[in-house]
Design brief:
Layout (H helix, E strand, L loop, with lengths): L1 H28 L5 E3 L11 H4 E10 L11 E10 L3 E11 L3 E4 L3 E16 L2 E2 L5 E2 L1 H5 L6 E5 L2 E2 L3 H14 L3 E7 L2 E7 L2 E3 L4 E3 L2 E16 L5 E4 L15 E15 L8 E6 L5 E4 L2 E3 L2 E8 L10 E2 L9 E8 L5 E11 L9 E5 L2 H7 L10 E4 L2 E10 L2 E9 H7 L10
């Protein structure tokens, strides 16, 4: 009898211990995610725990409507988990993403950007009448990467305007007041231009650039309002690696006429040219960490997607096979297989997943991911989940991809209101 009591007591203690351990594990594993689909809001708690742990949505804050969709993009909810509906266990904020559909891109695009102001990309000595080398702008504190905005209180938008303004100021008063942006701060300096014997003009010793151009790939377009996203990464100046502040810009169709195959230590490249009579053209309104965004006009078609497909939010992206769409010859969009090797959540830049090219033909032609492929849409399980962004320099078969969700966040879609 005593033995039976001991056995029962031990059994009860064992059950209690197991329940306690399971409870602790459940407490630790309560959802950490800050993003979810509407259908994923309530986690699946099996068995008795579905009755013990209750979810209380204590408050909600609606995000502003998207300019890429007439429906609400997201909703933030404060979630409280309570034991038996009484004892608080854990609280957290969940961002519930509403459904959205976009048409994947894949088109090869030519991109031209005019900067806000004129970027300093180098310094050059000015040789005076005595043969002495001088650096007037450098001596005044103007550095490579700075953006020239005004000279003598006049806006400058082109390299020619900078040259003319400096020459005029040198002739008229011998000095020039220059307003420029240095590391996000506005600075004003007085420069003393030097008369250059070689050119017969007053100069301050700078190389400047007012525009940039290149070839990339369209990521998506919204058929409802023709807003687009492309490239998947920020456009920077080739010499300074500084982000280009956009004053004006456009995208048009481009055609690929050659491929420089990627190899270890040397990224490959698409070699293309702009199409003179492009069937589409778009504005560039934003140049962000995850790409460029604006509005498209004309005919933009992807033969693989006649209609928009659902967006796959960050919480849906998983390790496994996927497809990308890009152009490797002419203007023809083709479909290629890749594998998502790793998903990196909670990153807000353009390196959210590691992708590896598995398609034999793409490996044969390009060696993997090459320059100009940036922006190629990534589709997994019938949903648009991201875009190609970077190649691994020492492994052309692999590269980074950005979540489509981060591109949406960086676009103006959450900032603008549109009538339904």
């Amino acid at each position: 009898m005593e033995d039976d009591k001991r056995v029962k007591k031990r059994s009860v203690l064992l059950v209690i211990s197991l329940l306690y351990c399971t409870f602790l594990q459940l407490l630790v594993e309560l959802p950490q995610m800050h993003q979810a689909q509407v259908s994923q809001l309530e986690p699946s708690l099996s068995g008795v725990w579905s009755k013990v742990i209750q979810i209380e949505k204590t408050s909600s804050v609606s995000a502003s409507s998207s300019s890429l969709s007439n429906s609400q993009v997201s909703q933030k909810l404060d979630i409280a988990y309570k034991l038996f509906g009484i004892f608080p266990l854990k609280t957290g904020e969940v961002e519930v993403m509403s459904p959205m559909s976009l048409i994947p891109g894949g088109q090869s695009i030519g991109v031209t950007l005019q900067t806000k102001g004129v970027m300093v990309v180098g310094q050059a000595p000015v040789v005076d009448k005595n043969g002495k080398n001088s650096f007037p702008a450098k001596d005044a504190g103007i550095q490579v990467g700075d953006i020239l905005l005004k000279i003598e209180n006049q806006d400058v938008k082109t390299d020619q305007e900078v040259s003319n303004a400096i020459d005029a100021a040198g002739k008229q008063k011998g000095t020039a007041t220059v307003l420029f942006k240095h590391q996000e701060q506005m600075v004003e300096k007085v420069v003393t231009p030097i008369y250059c014997v070689e050119t017969g003009r007053y100069r301050m010793g700078l190389f400047v650039r007012d525009e940039a151009a290149g070839v990339g790939t369209l990521s998506f377009i919204n058929p409802a309002n023709n807003l687009y996203g492309a490239l998947g990464h920020v456009i920077t100046d080739a010499d300074t690696n500084q982000k280009i502040e956009v004053y004006n810009g456009k995208v048009i169709a481009s055609t690929i006429y050659a491929i420089e195959k990627g190899k270890r230590g040397h990224p490959g490249e698409k070699i293309g040219s702009f199409v003179p009579n492009s069937s589409f053209s778009g504005t560039i309104e934003k140049n962000t960490m995850t790409g460029i965004f604006g509005k498209m006009n004309g005919q933009v078609e992807n033969p693989y997607f006649k209609e928009a497909i659902p967006v796959g939010w960050e919480s849906e992206v998983k390790v496994g096979p996927a497809k990308i769409y890009t152009v490797i010859k002419g203007e023809k969009i083709e479909e290629f297989t890749v594998n998502i090797d790793r998903v990196m959540h909670n990153r807000t830049d353009s390196k959210n997943m590691i992708i590896r090219v598995t398609d034999p033909r793409l490996l044969e032609v390009t060696g993997g991911i090459i320059q100009g492929m940036s922006g190629s849409p990534i589709v997994q399980d019938g949903k648009l989940i991201g875009a190609v962004t970077h190649v691994f320099v020492n492994d052309a078969q692999r590269g980074y991809g950005v979540f489509i969700q981060n591109m949406i966040n960086d676009s103006s879609m959450r900032d603008k209101q549109e009538a339904a």
